[in-house]
TrEMBL record:
Source organism superkingdom: Bacteria
Species for this entry: Pseudaquabacterium inlustre
Domain Deacetylase sirtuin-type: 1-247
Lineage, highest ranks first: Bacteria, Pseudomonadati, Pseudomonadota, Betaproteobacteria, Burkholderiales
GO molecular function: NAD-dependent protein lysine deacetylase activity
Domain remark text: 2 residues (Tyr-70 and Arg-73) present in a large hydrophobic pocket are probably involved in substrate specificity. They are important for desuccinylation activity, but dispensable for deacetylation activity.
Localization terms from the record: Cytoplasm
The protein's name in its UniProt record: NAD-dependent protein deacylase
Keyword Membrane: no
Amino acid sequence: MAHAEALATLRERLAAAPRWCVLSGAGMSAESGIATFRDAMSGLWSRFDPMQLASEAGFRADPARVWDWYAERRAGVRAAQPNAGHRALGAYAQRHPGRLTVITQNVDDLHQRAGNTDALRLHGDVLGERWLDRCRRDPGCHPDWALAGSPPHCERCGNLVRPDVVWFGEPLPLAVFDAAQRAVDAAAVLLVVGTSGAVWPAAGLVARAHRAGAWVAILNPEASEVDDEADQCLRGTAATLLPALLD
Ligand SMILES: CC(C)NC(=O)[C@H](Cc1c[nH]c2ccccc12)NC(=O)[C@H](CCCC/N=C(/NCCC(=O)O)S[C@H]1O[C@H](COP(=O)(O)OP(=O)(O)OC[C@H]2O[C@@H](n3cnc4c(N)ncnc43)[C@H](O)[C@@H]2O)[C@@H](O)[C@H]1O)NC(=O)OCc1ccccc1
């Protein structure tokens, strides 16, 4: 089926869908200038070891190094702007409240800034902070009381502040993951945008949606690890395909 025709049929499916979902990954924010993880040359994981930088053990082994790496990524997120893909989803949600659920693996806040303020963040918020360990004092120390530093730390009990993200080996926030599973179970369509489908349990949502009877469409310039679960794959970028489907 020609690209234009495939786009037109998917556009009709979305227009007819009472409820549908987006599952987004790093590719969603690539055109906003935020590096993806696995892209061969520019991907973060081609330059850094994920287990050293995005794991509790890595943080405990070298807190300053991990904190500084996140500080760099936080600055990048603050300097970035939602792209045409984010804006198309935000505008859609304003026009059709309650029909779209955005589920994201991204720790940036670009979906929220574009208007999808209720987006389900499976892997946390890189601009958020929390204590590394449960504070042993009562009442517990508040992260805002932490002494500045790399990372900030509690002057009373030495507790370290960590970014409020889900590191490898850590469970996803249960309430958020449950809501994401319920959303894909009720979806007529799932758009999988800009993810390699390499990270679990997020990637499992694609097969779950398919089993539940949703039409699964993948938007990605390259092949991904979840293409087999798809009813159609549209080769292109988030900032070009989403406006073409929704505006
Ligand atoms: C790597 C993988 C093999 N490992 C895992 O999945 C592990 C282990 C695991 C668990 N189950 C498994 C089953 C099988 C195999 C392995 C596992 N999973 C975990 O550790 C998870 C936690 C996983 C979350 C890790 N945190 C992240 N992020 C936050 C931190 C941070 O960001 O620093 S994951 C991080 O990487 C992932 C990157 O993937 P993508 O977003 O897909 O990005 P990628 O670069 O790979 O791909 C980009 C795509 O975009 C495309 N693209 C590029 N440009 C564009 C463009 N312009 N437009 C559209 N598309 C584009 C490209 O073609 C490409 O396809 C994102 O999820 C991102 O959040 N936790 C857990 O299992 O806990 C257990 C548990 C349970 C109970 C109790 C205790 C423990």
